[in-house]
Amino acid sequence: MAQGELKKSDVINMGSKELAYLGDSVYDVYIRKALLLKGIRGVKELNKESEKYVTASSQADIYLKIQDELYEDEEKVFLRGRNTKLKHTNKNVKISTYRLATGFECVFGYLYMLKNFKRIEYLINLIVNLNEGKE
Question: Taking the model in full, what pTM does it have?
């Protein structure tokens, strides 16, 4: 195994807070890329559009729409992330919503660590299409 490569079991055993930390950034970058590819221009418009995807409440809603699309291992990672004990949450978001968003972010951290970029792209395209009412 080359340096920096991890086995699936190594990634599955990573802490869910750490996977969510990474997954938050991965998801954000892929959503930003998708918005640019849609032709949206201007930082103000991009930020406005990205709120439909990257807030905790948006992520929780999106998860509920795509949960049947997740593979078994992704769902296990999600559940572990959802059940993580959280010390800090946004005061304007219910803890149940925040937990769903944390689990959702874990999935993207997990896929990124496995270098499963095709799967990330698939899920992002599905999410964007669902938000546009194309699915």
Answer: 0.89
Of the candidates 61, 58, 33, the one whose C-alpha atom is nearest the C-alpha of residue 46 is 33
CA distance 11 to 34: 26
Fold of the domain spanning 15-131: Ribonuclease iii, N-terminal Endonuclease Domain; Chain A (1.10.1520)
Cα distance between residue 50 and residue 107, in whole Å: 19
Residues assigned a catalytic role: 24
pLDDT digits (tens, 9 = 90+) for 57-78: 999 999 999 999 999 999 999 9
Q: Is 85 helix (H, G, I), strand (E, B) or coil?
A: coil
